[in-house]
Amino acid sequence: MTSEYADIPVEELTEESAAVELERLAREILRHDKLYHGGDSPEISDAAYDALRRRNLAVEQAFPHLVREDSPSRRVGFVALDKFEKITHAMPMLSLANAFSDEDVADFWDSVTRFLKLDGRPALTAEPKIDGLSLSLRYENGRLASAATRGDGVVGENVTTNARTISDIPNVLAGNDIPQVVEVRGEVYMTKQAFQALNAKLEAEGKPAYVNPRNTAAGSLRQLDSAVTAQRPLRFFAYAWGEMSSVPRSTQMEMVALLGQWGFKTNPLMKRFTGLAELLEHYHAIEEGRAELAYDIDGVVYKVDDLGLQARLGMRSNSPRWAIAHKFPAEKAWTLLKDIEIQIGRTGALTPVARLEPVTVGGVVVTNATMHNEDYIKGIGNDGQPIRGGKDLRIGDTVMVQRAGDVIPQILDADLEKRPEDSRPFEFPTVCPACGSHAVREVNVQTGKQDSVRRCTGGLICPAQAVERLKHFVSRNAFDIEGLGDKQVEAFYAEGMIRTAADIFRLREEDEKSLKRLKDREGWGETSAKNLFEAIEVRRDIALYRFIFGLGIRHVGEQTAKDLARAYGDIDAFSAAMKKLAAGEEEAQEELIAIDGIGGTVAFALKEFFAEPRNVAVYDALLEEVRPQPAEQAASDSPVAGKTIVFTGSLERMTRDEAKAMAERLGAKVSGSVSSKTDLVVAGPGAGSKLKKAADLGVETTDEDGWFELVGQA
């Protein structure tokens, strides 16, 4: 899923575009989590995935009041598969925060030192980050009782029988110094040599080969038949622990050494450091020698060595504060740019996509790459400055591809020495390839800046936009009609069965009149047709925000739709307000912009949508088929319910994330800035400009103790 805002720097995003971008990122990261954790078949590299999460975090930090309920920052891993029994982890299996540069590592170490208020940096351990499947092993009285995958971090899959087949996992712990309950955590992996041998065997048998060792190891461990797992040469490195009835050692290094004494394999490259230069030297040495290792790694993990300090540092919402993963840079490769195709999205955006000679990058075969917009092809960035040294991209070029920074790979460079003599600059179309309408670059009235995206002006007459709008309408966060996916929408549109959203709800009626019934079409049957019609019927009653979001209005993402639904309450009020807005009534415009989270860009988009008679006709026809349900209003009897809270300064009894989560549980909204709409500012030591602004505006303030007293948790 691409987005017209994916390439815009965070600092240039508006509130409306940030909401749309967070919606895109939440969907895309969830999809890749499902592919990676749920299906062991990722479509993107770790570097590309990390880039998505970094982008999500950066947007959330810039717009903290827009953080979504389904935000990836609030989730670890993916839900456990239904085919296995579930095991609830006694202690959550958290993920790690990431560092991508030497500076990030120094910042992490310094932040730990500041948090603990130490005079010098505490010692860190450093060990390779194995690219495998996380596993938690529970031992009771020294014997293996259960084995569970990470799952969503709280509940994992019970793979005990399969884990017993791995020779590196002892069924009985060795030695006498063993607590009654021991949870050992580590990574299941497959060596490169074993992976190559397995693929050679599969190819000899005429079976498809596996993509990489990580996916193969994960799939092997999650076999329903443990005999299959036993035939796969799986290995296990132990490096951590969960629940322990007692912790026999006081440092990370000592505990990992003890795991070795109990019978586990631990990584020999793990070392302890007190100096930054030596730590980074170890990282770069591992990076340079990674190709010679018997197993795949994707970085180095640093942990505070002292377990007492780890306890003081504690946890964030989904990662420990005392550890970080220093990831290796994204891998790159050169290949041939075979063609440039133009795709049209539901908002009319013309997006160029590079078709490449297939090339393997980081264990994944790459066949296409994003080209963002026509300026990107010309070698011009969003700020008008040259990119790639000003080199343009042409069909026939030899280009460098990297899997990082977007859902699909990016082109980083072009080798001009290999450019064909007869190559010509790419001419970006000024008419829509789908409908022939003019394609223009709009000019922002407020800034006078030309939009980086060229758009088709065909609107509702453009078949490409119509199909994309229908796909959006039935998507998971809109009407979520089961059985009506992208392929079905394309087929139904091509055959003239649906043209607008309302037609979807008339499918059964029209089908009964047709000589060629859906059940008789290729790929369908009586049961599948019946199931689709029933799934459509269920969606006649739809949440108001889903209805608004499903309309596909530009700049109206899921969060904005929720804001509108809560503000207007029901469909009658929303429809009346939009009618007045389209008629140019200033009061309706002011009322709309006064809604928290709604700005001029969204207001303009709504006005334009409802001022178009063809859009209103589609809207009215849809309302004849569906019944949007009134929005649920947040109900809470807490003293801060419905109030806007700002936290500032150094909080001592809770982290900023904990404070925000607490306020939201109590029905409050947390904002990152103080305004006249702020109801309360909670200020800790070191509070500066926000506290001053609160005083200037006459906003009520309190300290951390006052906050706990206010909410009844003193």
Structural category is alpha+beta
> How many structural domains?
5
N→C terminal distance = 46 Å
Radius of gyration: 28 Å
Net shape: globular
Task: Report the mean per-residue pLDDT as an integer.
Answer: 84
Strand fraction equals 15-25%
Q: How many distinct beta strands?
A: 24
- State the helicity in percent bands: 25-40%
Number of H/I helices: 25
Describe the protein in words.
- A hairpin with a 7-residue loop joins strand 15 and strand 16 (410-414).
- This protein is globular.
- The protein folds into five domains: 1-75, Helix hairpin bin (Helix Hairpins); 86-327, D-amino Acid Aminotransferase, Chain A, domain 1, CATH 3.30.470.30; 459-539, 5' to 3' exonuclease, C-terminal subdomain (DNA polymerase, domain 1, Orthogonal Bundle); 543-629, 5' to 3' exonuclease, C-terminal subdomain (DNA polymerase, domain 1), CATH 1.10.150; 644-710, BRCT domain (Rossmann fold).
- It is α+β, with helices and mostly antiparallel strands.
- The longest helix is centred in the first third of the chain and has 24 residues, at 15-38.
- It has a five-stranded mixed beta sheet with strand order 2-11-10-3-9, sandwiched between helices. A five-stranded antiparallel beta sheet has the order 14-13-12-15-16. A four-stranded antiparallel beta sheet has the order 5-4-7-8.
- Helix 17 (544-550) packs across helix 18 (558-568).
